[in-house]
Sequence to fold (422 residues):
Amino acid sequence: MFHGDGYAINNLCAANFASTTYLSLVLILSNGPAFHSFQVSYIPWAVAGTAYPGLVLAAYLINAKIAVKVALRSVPESLDVSSTRVQAVAALCVTLDDFDLAACSPEHLISLVTKLSFFQTIRVSDLDGQPLAYALAATWKLVHHVYAVARLEVVAPDDDDLSPAPESVPWHLWVHSATCFESATGRTLLLPTSTEVQDHLQTVFNYAVALIHLPHANARFLVARTLQQMYAVGVGPLPLPTFVCVLCTLAGSGDISPALASSAALTFVRVCRMYNPTTDMAPALASDDLNLTHILGFLGRPKGDGHAAAATPRRSSSSSAEVLAHLVRLVVIQRRQALRGEFANVVQGLVQEGLGGHLPPGDLNGRGQMLLDKFLGMLEVSRTLLLGHLHDSFSLNEVAYVRHLELVVQLQGTTTSVESVA
Fold:
């Protein structure tokens, strides 16, 4: 048990408060109700002066006695506590560089892996996902140190509807302008892995892939670093959506070296070149708000960062220009996606209002007329894009109905124009 770093300072503050209060009270008495006594005799001053040290000392000791003691637990003991916050701090301690793995026995490290399994019982939203992210990173660090793990199975995020089957990106795509994973960390154990350990690491990998696609900014960097390490050592095959999230997150994080951020950005450019010539696949995957924020964070980095070593590659103008070009494409794609979503809602509303009764434009109610006007206005803005989305996303009957409405409105407009000319 210990009191913490602020124990003495807090006691001194209590003594100072007592001293100030006491001296203020003496001054009030000497200039108020007891003015005559203080003027004619030195005894009141002597009494006040004699009581002063004892009062200050008493305030210090009383505050020290009621101070709350904090239990100084080891990492294993902290992992056994039911508090999620305490468990998260213990997992964080394991992920730090000064946690000496070489000084621990294999049995001790394996027991920590077992205790870190609490990540399977907590909510993802607890503390913005950070306890879960710390537990995943700590488990990976320990397992990678102890065991010679085999390659894991690729897993796609739950919201991945861009490909029917999960496929991992090719290995060795990472641009090695920085050391991405420190292999010389006293990693000398490399015990043969068991099916149980391999399955547990697969669970960790599955959680990490799912977590990086969730809107938890603080946890996202921790998970991105873990997934990047798994990918760099050939253990964790990443599907393209996950790989793009990892690259964007690492590129824009301010908690890593500029060299690693530059590596992530250059790798993102490489991925865009590979997947982008005809499909815009990679920018489409990177066009969510957090990824755009991370890329903007990378572009906001100074070209020469004082924290980087002299031999560390810095962000070059050419790499920034390429990333900026892709960023513009991301913004355009995000705008297209938003436009498609809004257009789909309008078409769905039109179908609900009029398809059942095959209503012509003139028989639609007020809401139907408003939706029809919006439908026609959006087609004027981006006709090719939206008509393609219409045919891809709706049935033939629905497409035929809304196109019929469009044609009738156009014919009515043409007839009105001819009559006005005549």
